[in-house]
Amino acid sequence: MEARLITDRRQWNTFVRDMPTGHLCQTYEWAEHGEDPAARDKALRVGVVEGDRVLGAVLLLRSKLPGIPGALYYAPRGPVVPDADGPVLPLLMRSAAQMARKAGGFALRVEPNMPDDQPQWRAAFERLGFHASPHVIYLRNTWILDIRPDEKHLLDGMKTTWRYNIGKTGRSGVIVRQGNGEDDFQAFYRLQAETAKREHFYLYPASVFRDMLAHYSPEAAARDATALITLLIAEYQGTPLAATTVATFGKWAWSMHTGITSDAQARKLRPNYLLQWEAIRWARQQGCDFFDFRNIPEVLEPGQPMYGVYEFKKGFGGFFHRVMPTMELVLNPLIYYPYTWAVDLRHTLRNRGSKSNGHTPAGDDAAPKEAAAATAGE
Length: 378
Prior knowledge:
Aminopeptidase, 378 residues, single chain, 40% helix, seven-stranded mixed sheet, 2 domains
């Protein structure tokens, strides 16, 4: 058994797909649609192998803060390992730390896809020198729907208003179709831009979304055993009103980036309800068992940031899920502690400005673009 870098896409993706702790954000391609070419090129894909078998894997993305030497390496929803107590996790994380340090990393941050109600995972990371960190990139709370029942049971499990809106929107003449081609992509991005402006979240350049659709195309999924992403568009009389991307990987599906028009009259048609329902139906057609609506707020109380997002997702039925805390391993204390001070200062200043305009951001200012990815379009 040894730890080394893995360059075989299909080998990597097949392992991640088939593991209970596997996640879309740990696919081989997740590092390839960022804005910074240097970050893409310097991502680390570390695996523990025995012969031809992969036993554990972690994708480490590289993030830099202006004015801070070195880089933070972090694993979105990783590592992917079979258990907390076996030999794979220690070998994987010690090797990953060594490689990250050699590449100029001053800290290793992991945000594992392990449930919060299984304390053995946190204990395992603490034994390796990791500590819980308040600097979160991907939010811990999510809302999940079991989509194995038939459509009638899924509709019956929704709130009455949600079920009514889905039916009424369809009867009003709104249709949902798969997007294809440049015109549909431009419509999707335009709706993303409208939503970003209205809801005050970071909007990626169009090239990032293009990359994601290309890296997770049907051809790439078949060739590399990676995830599949589709674009769905809700339109009325030929005019796009809302659009979303949906990802599937193994038995899981994720609601990715959603945009809805700012036109008040068009919004009265409630296209987002029908669009989300068709996203669920599409995921079922791909053979998925679970639909992850992704991020919901840390504090589930009315008036809290993103509470409206939580209520919308909850209305489709499902259950609350929380993963273990973000964990960090210090690799270079001389850089790490000034870095955390700078992050905390930026976070405080940003929160002050946000409160003055009535908006509170989610995620860690140390990596604002990555944090935005976790909440974009919602």
